[in-house]
Structures are given as structure tokens and as C-alpha cells.
Please model this.
Amino acid sequence: MKIINTCEDIKTLFADGFHLQTWRQYAGAISKALPEKCENDAKEYDFEKAVLPVLNNALHTDKIDLVSRSFQSVTDSLQENLKKLFDTEPDINIILYLGLCNGAGWATTLDGKDTVFLGIEKIIELDWGDETNMRALILHEIGHLWHKLNGNLHIPEYTKRRKGIAQLYCEGVAMVCEHILCGDDEFYHQDNNGWLDWCYKNENQIKREYLRRLDKKESVQDFFGDWCSYNGHSDVGYFLGCHFVQSLMKAHSLKKIANMKYRALNKAFTEFANTVIEPLALEDYHKCSNIWNMQAQPLSLQWKEEIESGNRLVFIYKIKGEFIAEGALVLHTADPDYTIPGKRVYVSRMIVKKEYRNRGIGSEMLAFLIRKAKEMGYSEITIGVDKDNTAALHLYRKFGFTEVLFDGTDENGEYYKLMKVCY
Model:
């Protein structure tokens, strides 16, 4: 692995501003192929209006040294991080350079060698020069290179649908790799001003709209790139792509996913986009009986009153309209072992239809319920579990639940334990 930081050359050569001929000599010193590569990539932009102002702004700020220090700090510890994903150290270049607005991060090939370019002008424009954002940029582009080395990075994009699936897939794999390398599967460097919370709250809408555009042969560019936005939020496709790949990981290894072909990806995304978790409408409650394998029964008066009052929130997991799983949160009861208003919430029920078990749906539903509880400001979550239900106990412990002293019997006289997790 070769690390190249050209910041000192940038400060020296462009002290009086940007000049294209000087830049060509500078880029050519990195590689004879680099000037033409960058210019070809940027030729669709209006150089005078879209590129030159960004270059001159970067060169006339005092942020170059900050970017350089962040780059050095991240790359100093990079080799150890890469062991989480690569079996051996990858033979790649990582170059911090002045480009022509070719991107803050760019995974490509230079002189026959896999290379990550980090464009200082775009990094400064986006205010991503701190160490956290620098690490995210580098790890994400390395994720693309891991995909290239281990699978099917390039899917032919001769239709809008194929292009939309390919972009979502490739960025999703890179995001998952980034999460593995940084050790945080909730990290998105785009998460400013509530970006991640908005994505979670609108996930159903985001994936349905993405699928609609694919079906209608419309562009999905709004979901990618800092210069684009969907409903006022940029880079929403990175969130969606990551969740799509994570859904595939319920049944496949990441290496197998990295080798998936378009037809399988298209089918999988269509199912993923038609899978939603949403509040249960009271008039649909009888449909939940197919989860419990019971005859349809009328909603109990207690549940109806609790749902209407907002004390019980019931959510349903649906695939193409079929009710697959159910989860419920109770916000307040008279029993302090279960709930405390504003502090402790109780997961009163969580069940997956028998034929859909062992597919990760229970984990997804529980993660959703936990996230909902956090959104409402609860710091403790309790759940009751049959003492002999080893599968449920394993799942809850995986999410951080621990057994508490309280135990007892339910309305049927069956013994259970109470488990709690705090955040």
C-alpha cells in the first residue's frame, strides 16, 4: 500500500491561484496518465462556472493543513483497520491531491494499480476535512476496491433500471465495508442536522420511491451526490443501499453478495422495497391472526382503548402486503416493573409468522422497536420472555438485554423472566 500526500506541492505551486497548465504539470508528476483522466472525467461540467470557483476557494482558505493532518492521522492507523476486511494488505495507492472536482473520494485504476483519490478541493467545499469525515471517505472508497477485488463491482448499465440497481448495490456494499472497517454500523458521515433520523423515519417512503422510479424508467440521481437531493436530503441512496445490502446479509455472506448478478439483485431489491414496517391500522387488526395461526378474533376492548389512547403502539412487518410479523410497545401501565412514563417502555409482544422465522425478521423488528423507543426519548426497554424460549433469549441478549431480578407468571400461568436494556 502506497500513501501519497501532495499538500505541500499544492501550497507551493498554487500560492497565487489556480492555473490549468500548472495543474497539468503537477498532476503529470503524480502520473503521466492523471491529467487526461481527470479532464475526461470533468468534461461534462462548465469549467469556468462549476469547477474553477471551487478550486480557487480551496486554494485561498487555511484548511489545506487541516485536511493534510487528518489524512496523515487516518492513514497512519489504516493498515491495522484493513485486517478487519482484507486477508492480506491490499496493493493500492491512496493519494491526497488537487483534482478538477472529480469527487471528494474516487476509487479507480491508475497505471494499472487500484487507487483511491481524495480531492482536496471537494473535501474543503463540503467541509469534510476533519479526521472523522476523512476516515469515512477513505474507508468507503477502499470498500469499493474490496468489492472489485472480491466480486462483481461493475454491472453493465445499458438501461436506467440496471444503472439504478447497480449504483445502489455498489454504494451499499461500500457502506457495509465502511461500517466493518470503522466498527460502527450506524455511522454515516452525511449525518448532519438529523439526516440519519430523517432517513429512518422515511425509510418506507424512500425505498418505495426508488422502486417507483426504476419501474417508470426515471433517473435516480437525486439519491446520490452532494449536488443532488431527495426531499431536501442529499446522499439518501447511501442509506438505502446500505440497508439493502444488510437485508441480503441475512441469508448470504458479504463475499457472496459481492458476486451477485443483476437479475438476482433486481429481484431482491423489489422484495426489499415492498417490505415495510408500519403502524397497524385498527381495522386491519384481524389480519394479524395469520401470524399467530389463529382464527380471526375481534380486537379486545383493552387493546383498542390502549391503541386509541396512544399507550400501546402496534407495528406490523409486511412483505408485498402480507402480514409477516408483529411488534408492540406499551408506554405506560400501573406496574413500574414494566413501564415508567418518559423513561421505561415495555415490548409487550413480538412474533414472526412460523414459515418466515430464521430469516432475520425478528432481529429487524426488534431493532425497529428499540429505535422507536429511543426516538420517543425512552432510555430503558423491558421485555418478558418464556424461560425456556432459548431462541428469544439469544436474540434479546444479542441486543444487549440482560435478565433482571423480577420474574413471575403470565395470565396463562406460564413462568417467564423480565429482561431490560438501558441506553
User: Anything to note?
Assistant: The longest strand covers residues 322-330. The two ends are 40 Å apart (CA to CA). The mean pLDDT is 90.
